[in-house]
Design goal:
It is a single chain. By secondary structure, the protein is α+β, with helices and mostly antiparallel strands. About 70% of the residues lie in helices and about 15% in strands. A hairpin with a 5-residue loop joins strand 1 and strand 2. Helix 2 runs antiparallel to helix 3. The chain starts with a helix and ends with a strand.
């Protein structure tokens, strides 16, 4: 914007200087009128051109700011959907284990966006007591069949 204003000022000074020189060296009044008309048009075009460019630059910058806001909003929505999906899968897997009467400590699911605008289960970790190890195959089969993802079973002594 500052460069546009300085460009207008330079154009104005140059045009006024050209008008003053023309008035001194012009032989007739008719020549001064024609030259004044030409210089006036020149001044009009050159004064408005930098201002139009400056306004277009401001307009383009405001759209890029809107794009940034839009991208941030899309990212936040995507992250919220992924979190809700992970929570839903955790609850579903928990209900499945409850129906099998297998106690568990915790379930953690990691989901991600895939290239086709879908959600993919990256991993399912089920934390169990060591004594539940006897149900290993039963748990893996049930979770794999229901979620199409093989779970990682993590057993602990506590």
């Amino acid at each position: 914007m500052t460069s546009a204003i300085s460009s207008c000022a330079v154009t104005l000074v140059c045009t006024l200087t050209a008008c003053a020189v023309l008035k001194v060296i012009a032989p007739t009044e008719r020549t001064i009128k024609i030259a004044s008309l030409v210089l006036g048009l020149f001044l009009l075009v050159n004064m408005t051109s930098p201002l139009i460019s400056a306004f277009e630059e401001v307009k383009n910058n405001s759209f890029s700011a809107d794009d940034t806001i839009l991208n941030d909003a899309q990212s936040q929505i995507s992250n919220a959907v992924l979190k809700e999906t992970g929570d839903y899968i955790n609850a579903y897997a928990g209900k499945l284990l409850d129906s099998l009467e297998i106690p568990y400590k915790n379930i953690k699911t990691v989901v991600e966006n895939n290239d086709e605008s879908g959600i993919t289960i990256r991993s399912v970790c089920i934390y169990l007591d060591k004594e539940q190890e006897i149900h290993d195959k039963k748990i893996k089969d049930a979770i794999t069949q229901s979620l199409c993802a093989e779970p990682m079973l993590i057993y602990s002594e506590e």
